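Internal ticket - ligand job 504, S-adenosyl-L-homocysteine:
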Amino acid sequence: MGIVYLIGAGPGDPGLLTVKAKEILECADVLIYDYLANKEFISYCKEGAEILYVGKKGGDHTLPQDKINELIVKKAKEGKVIARLKGGDPYVFGRGGEEAEELVEAGIKFEVIPGITAGVAAAAYAGIPVTHRDFTTSVCFITGHEDPTKEKSGHNWEVYAKSNSTLVFYMGVKNLPMIAENLISNGRDPETPVALVRWGTRCNQQSFVSTLENVAEEAANRKFKAPSIIIVGGVCSLHDKLGWFEKKPLLGKGVVVTRAREQSSGLVSTLGKLGACVHEFPTITIMPMADYAPVQKAISSLSDWDWLIFTSVNGVKHFFKQLDESGLDARVFAGLQIAAIGPATAAALVAKGIKPDFVPEKYIAEGVVEGLLERGVKGKKVLIPRALIAREVLPQELEKAGAHVQILPVYETGLSENDPAPILEALESGKINYLTFTSSSTVENFFNLVEPEQFHKFKDSVKIACIGPITTKTLEGFGFEPDIQPEEYTIPGLVDELVKESAE
Ligand code: SAH
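stdout (structure tokens):
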């Protein structure tokens, strides 16, 4: 017999999943998930795990609750470990209780992993503590949408209205006029502050504060829809003072990241922390070489060289992988001079215990050439582990300066077979503010996947950011001008420029 974990996925911010939930996702055989749960969590599942979507969107049930229950029981009887993931907390308006009862009846083992419920999290991200000694002694979670088949309402509006409790309504936007009306007619002060938080904890979070008597009209004017949390009570007056999330510099800005997935995590996470809605659209894939014999040979005779120049983090990664596979370690670098083309490459080397002897001030090939000339590269033997196809400026200029250069391909880059449909759709619906290019090949491959003519109509609404002059030049070749190019040709430099641009 299997086991079922009823797991709360939290309100949307992927960081708000619990450690325990992640551990279960990593080992589950089956994942059964809902509409509001973050899709990112699927990536935690092990290879071969069965992924089943049973969510509902509005009134449109993909699978009715009884069928969901049946499915869970059936899978558990097959002896599987099942992660049943639900938005927020499974026992707070999540029908997790019903699913658990069903499991008990079927004699199936289960555990509950609570999640952070939207009523608390969306409020906190909007600057509203649901309890606060100056305002209230209790908090009440209420459904704003009772089971329509119920004969008699379970609400006691008089109690809600007369208590000083903070009232947190789930699923209430449609019924907001009725909710406000019931509270006022039962005696709550019409001036009571009310907050609405839509898409709480996500990059597209929006919130506002009004009063019980005006909130319905204001929500309609602002076109506030589900999913929103409605918070009623004095604590809402802290919204402006304690709000922090919506102050993030890139909040709600749609940013496309075109780097290879293998390289994009740092940029994606930095943008996410700044509040951006990141759209990953990898245009490049990084592949190992078919044959590593030349690399192995070079590694076994490293002492023949004077300089070793790393031009990318990937170069470092693949070179060290080969080093490891040949049973050697960093001692082979003794006596060699080592250069890194930029700070990220340098950091990758430092992580391997190698402090580069030289990192140029300008993070492009031309900068390396200049610096190495100063360091007397003439007549020296230089080995450059890098991608099979890359700019030839570095080796050519070094040769011109009298160095003996050998290129050592340690990986290949290829065009990512990415479906452009989702990105075109996001562009079409105005969700994209920035398109980022971090190398010439991201530009070339982007316009391989999205026709330049197709992109033309977004020219004015989408700002293009290029990491440096070489990337810019490639972009210009496709008939577009960048709006942003940092002075320092690095990812942090690029991010800083996006932040500056957004503040304008
Ligand atoms: N079990 C969930 C609630 C499911 S009911 C939990 O504990 O959070 C669905 C309702 O939750 C939505 O109609 C909305 O009122 C609320 N909700 C869920 N996620 C939300 C979010 N990110 N921001 C605002 N409200 C949210």
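Auto-summary: The radius of gyration is 28 Å. The chain has 19 helices and 21 strands.
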